């Protein structure tokens, strides 16, 4: 009979693969930013929240905080590097006002992590105490990460356009939340269950909103003038223009 630990490890490996896909899901968004040379209405909030979330989970999974959680460390370490790249691209193309806001949030997150590490290592002397403190913060950060697209969902409802809420990101987020919820329930870990369970519900909400507004998303249009020649009544030739509309 297969033990619960083996099943949990298999689910955790699958969760790593899905989470990796989740971290790569915004590549299309940042490709648009690169091509357009500007961040437009794209929000940095999901990436700032995910960066903090990854830092906390890496710390939570370290052996001196919560032993036997290396699968949590590996995927969140990868996610930490990927989110840092995304935010670097965002900072490069963002206008000064948005750039300063992102830098301020990053500074706060860095100070917070240093203070947390020092406080936990110096003030908590058992695995249980350290896991409890960091775990509670992970629940808060994980919930914030899954809830961060709420700002985008508000924009979708206001503009009746899903342009700034990629479908793939919502779908992968749903499967990611389901997988890690299962991982946490096999060998019950409350701190992993709560944020990922909420993530499942919020991802479903995103998909419902996407289905409601995908058909109302306005298409980008531009006028293209093509040269033509039109005969005059006196049989002379003159240049003219025909205006047509091309949908992208």
From TrEMBL:
<comment type="similarity">
    <text>Belongs to the SWEET sugar transporter family.</text>
</comment>
<dbReference type="GO" id="GO:0005886">
    <property type="term" value="C:plasma membrane"/>
</dbReference>
<keyword id="KW-0472">Membrane</keyword>
<comment type="function">
    <text>Mediates both low-affinity uptake and efflux of sugar across the plasma membrane.</text>
</comment>
<feature type="transmembrane region" description="Helical">
    <location>
        <begin position="46"/>
        <end position="65"/>
    </location>
</feature>
<protein>
    <recommendedName>
        <fullName>Bidirectional sugar transporter SWEET</fullName>
    </recommendedName>
</protein>
<dbReference type="InterPro" id="IPR047664">
    <property type="entry name" value="SWEET"/>
</dbReference>
<dbReference type="Pfam" id="PF03083">
    <property type="entry name" value="MtN3_slv"/>
</dbReference>
<feature type="transmembrane region" description="Helical">
    <location>
        <begin position="192"/>
        <end position="213"/>
    </location>
</feature>
<feature type="transmembrane region" description="Helical">
    <location>
        <begin position="6"/>
        <end position="25"/>
    </location>
</feature>
<keyword id="KW-0813">Transport</keyword>
<keyword id="KW-1133">Transmembrane helix</keyword>
<keyword id="KW-0677">Repeat</keyword>
<comment type="subunit">
    <text>Forms homooligomers and/or heterooligomers.</text>
</comment>
<keyword id="KW-0762">Sugar transport</keyword>
<keyword id="KW-0812">Transmembrane</keyword>
<feature type="transmembrane region" description="Helical">
    <location>
        <begin position="100"/>
        <end position="125"/>
    </location>
</feature>
<feature type="transmembrane region" description="Helical">
    <location>
        <begin position="71"/>
        <end position="93"/>
    </location>
</feature>
<feature type="transmembrane region" description="Helical">
    <location>
        <begin position="131"/>
        <end position="152"/>
    </location>
</feature>
<comment type="function">
    <text>Mediates both low-affinity uptake and efflux of sugar across the membrane.</text>
</comment>
<keyword id="KW-1003">Cell membrane</keyword>
<dbReference type="GO" id="GO:0051119">
    <property type="term" value="F:sugar transmembrane transporter activity"/>
</dbReference>
<feature type="transmembrane region" description="Helical">
    <location>
        <begin position="164"/>
        <end position="186"/>
    </location>
</feature>
<dbReference type="InterPro" id="IPR004316">
    <property type="entry name" value="SWEET_rpt"/>
</dbReference>
